[in-house]
Write a structure and sequence with these properties.
The chain is an all-beta fold and 368 residues long. The chain is built from no helices and 29 strands. The strands form seven sheets. It has a five-stranded mixed beta sheet, with no helix packed on it. A four-stranded antiparallel beta sheet has the order 2-29-28-27, with no helix packed on it. A four-stranded antiparallel beta sheet has the order 3-4-5-6, with no helix packed on it. It is globular and about 50 Å long. 45% of the residues are buried.
Length: 368
């Protein structure tokens, strides 16, 4: 879930016509094929099951992946050197990795679930005093029972939203090179039906989207950090199972126009399906527009570039894409996939996903 900082610094007026023509187009695909719009998927990490993972691209277009390998740790996979390489980042019961890149450094946040060592940790590619196979040093950023970190990087500053064992949603931020950060901030004390999704404005200000409540169906919330604390607003109902958010960093038509930082959210609502939500301003106020995409419940992720919103989702075990410009276009990509992660490099797409049958593991592809 990423609004690329590397998109071309141009803008079009096509976004103003986005609602002028609306159509839904479903494209058929043979069961054994992958969409011809994409390169043939390459298995870049082999396993006997479909792992959870996180992916990001850097300024050069290289792909960086953090893979959760059950209770045996986190692995790092990349094609930064030209070919695909991997190394073992950790060897403990570490879960839910979230990866980001800033100032040329790769950062990975994860939740450790080991008694006496529980908490939210980070590791960075420029900190090479660690004992793991990658050699990256681990730093505990929050001590205590915690899960589902969402990492965003702004230069050398890391921001992380995460859930605690007390069912709180918290936020913590600090310089990557500093081992001791200030205390975490509480965003919400009744959290969450989904993992949080954190995104930053072009100036590094945090925004968080998440399924509200714990056992109840309390809808989707959007939170903004202000000078007086965190402001939150619930803007849709239902039990929210999964959330992915990006902010629109597209420059305005003129040099003096600032990016809107408008949020774009893909979310899955239990019993209803997959949706897209957006509004024109970045603050907590403003009217949200909600679009129903399809009755799919397997998870979704989102990217946004200029006037194009692109959502990849899982429906009945298949990978599908939803592209919204002046029209809405829905297309089946593959007959097998889960845990899909799209990313932008300029105007080009990269995508990773997991498979659990045939040849299980993590796959990588790019649009043609």
């Amino acid at each position: 879930m990423y609004a690329s900082a590397f998109r071309p610094r141009t803008a079009t007026i096509a976004g103003a016509l986005a609602l002028a023509c609306v159509a839904i187009i479903a494209a058929a695909l043979p069961a054994a094929a992958f969409s011809s719009d994409w390169t043939s998927p390459k298995r870049v990490y082999k396993l006997t099951y479909a792992p959870n993972h996180s992916m990001v691209t850097d300024a050069s277009g290289a792909t960086h992946i953090a893979v959760e390998r059950g209770s045996s740790g986190i692995w790092y996979v990349t094609d930064a050197s030209g070919g695909w390489t991997e190394c073992r980042l950790t060897s403990l019961n570490d879960r839910q990795p979230s990866i980001g890149v800033g100032a040329g450094v790769v950062h990975i946040a994860f939740a450790r679930q080991v008694d006496g060592q529980r908490g939210i940790y980070t590791a960075a590619s420029d900190q090479s005093s660690g004992a793991g196979g990658c050699g990256w040093a681990e730093i505990r950023r929050f001590a205590g029972k915690a899960s589902h970190p969402s990492l965003a990087v702004y230069g050398a500053t890391l921001s992380i939203a995460f859930r605690t064992g007390a069912k709180h949603l918290r936020f913590i931020r600090g310089k990557a090179s500093v081992s001791s950060w200030s205390a975490s901030q509480t965003i919400d004390t009744d959290c969450c039906t989904s993992a949080p999704s954190l995104a930053l404005t072009v100036n590094g200000a945090p925004r968080v989207a998440y399924g509200d409540g714990t056992a109840k169906a309390n809808g989707l919330k959007y939170a903004v950090k202000t000078s007086s604390g965190w402001k939150k607003k619930r803007f849709t109902s239902g039990r929210i199972k999964q959330v992915a958010m990006v902010l629109d960093h597209t420059p305005g038509l003129f040099a003096w126009d600032s990016p809107s930082n408008a949020p774009h959210i893909a979310y899955v609502r239990k019993g209803k399906g997959t949706y897209h939500a957006t509004k024109g301003t970045s603050g907590v106020s403003g009217q949200w527009k909600l679009d129903f995409i399809t009755k799919a419940f397997g998870g979704a992720d989102i990217v946004h570039n200029s006037n194009v919103t692109y959502i990849v989702f899982v429906k009945n075990g298949d990978l599908w894409s939803y592209r919204k410009t002046a029209i809405r276009y829905t297309k089946r990509l593959s007959s097998s996939g889960r845990d899909v992660k799209p990313q932008l490099h300029g105007a080009r797409m990269r995508m990773t996903f997991s498979r659990k049958s045939g040849s299980p593991g993590v796959y990588h592809t790019r649009d043609k």
